[in-house]
Amino acid sequence: MAHSWFSLPLGRVAGLLQPWALALSLLLVSGSLFPGPGAAQNKPRIVTSEEVIIRDGSGILVTLQCNLTSSFHSLKFSYWTKNGVELSATQKNASNMEYRINKPRAEESGEYHCVFHFVSAPKANATVEVKAAPDITGHKRSENKNEGQDAMMYCKSVGYPHPEWILHKKQNGVPMEIVNTSGRFFIINKENYTELNTLNLQITEDPGEYEWILAEIVILAVIIVVYEKRKRPDEVPNDDAPAGPMKTNSTNSHKDKNLRQRNTN
Questions:
Q1: Strand runs (DSSP E) across 17-107, as ranges?
Q2: pLDDT tens figures, 72-109
Q3: How many CA atoms lie within 13 A of 100 on its CB side?
């Protein structure tokens, strides 16, 4: 038998409405936590060229490309960056971007980003990696120090991804990993740069040949030359040696002689 809402008691009407109210509240919560498919479609879509590998001596022109294929917001401007730094003269108002590396070398490798700024929306970017094998560009070939002083050696390279630096010291012609039991060695590795600091040089321990091993490909040897600060035996005065003849004033000696001769007359 059908009942009219108006003929049912008020408490029973509330009981019938509770499941519907609960379902409605869950729907509202789920809608706030899980945005609809349209939200993902509003994000800009960027198509990029593939990663590039620079090979020494190839001389082949490298061209990086980015294309903003879709966006629901007006483009304000765009530009290129390399390793987080904006490249000069690349800013323009264009959705199709291109960057040319005319002389591809290892130092041109890195992370390139095409960045798009919009009028009323967060910026968007995409990455194009340019890779190259590591190549050493600078290092300290030797370090001449006195015993007790501090020494510093460094090595720099170019190439991307950044290499893993490994430092060895040759002992009897065999490369051995440096063990910092004395606490005198400090190694700093930062991207394409590494540095070895040695405190309080010891004449019996520190001189020798050190090797930077770069990505298991390039090996560079450097040498620390330590000079003793103590003097050689022939430079140290001998307190037991007999003293030499004392210097006399010849003029005074002759004068005294004449005086003695006058007194005898």
A1: 45-48, 52-54, 62-70, 75-82, 85-86, 96-101
A2: 899 999 999 999 999 999 999 999 999 999 989 999 99
A3: 5
Lookup: tokens for 220: 């560079």
Residue with tokens 């930062």: 190
List strand residue ranges (DSSP E) for 23-71, in order. Answer: 45-48, 52-54, 62-70
The Cα angle at residue 260 between residues 254 and 265, in degrees rounded to 5: 130
Tens digit of each residue's pLDDT (9 = 90 or more) over 249-259: 444 444 444 43
φ and ψ at residue 216, rounded to 5 degrees = 60, 20
The position carrying tokens 């770069």 is 214
Residues 6+ apart with CB under 8 A from 229: 146, 147, 148
Q: Name the β-bridge partners of 127.
A: 113
Looking up tokens 């409605």 gives 24
Average model confidence (pLDDT) across the chain: 78
Measure the CA–CA gap between 68 and 221, rounded to whole angstroms: 48
Predicted TM-score of the model (pTM): 0.64
Give the separation between CA 169 and CA 174, rounded to whole angstroms: 8
Count CB-CB contacts under 10 A for residue 8. Answer: 13
Q: Which of 75, 110, 70, 109 is nearest to 91 (CA)?
A: 75
- Tokens standing for residue 44: 């800009």
Residue 184 pLDDT > 90:
yes
Q: What is the pLDDT of residues 227-250, one digit of tens each?
A: 876 555 555 455 444 444 444 444
Domains of the chain: 45-133 (2.60.40.10), 140-229 (2.60.40.10)
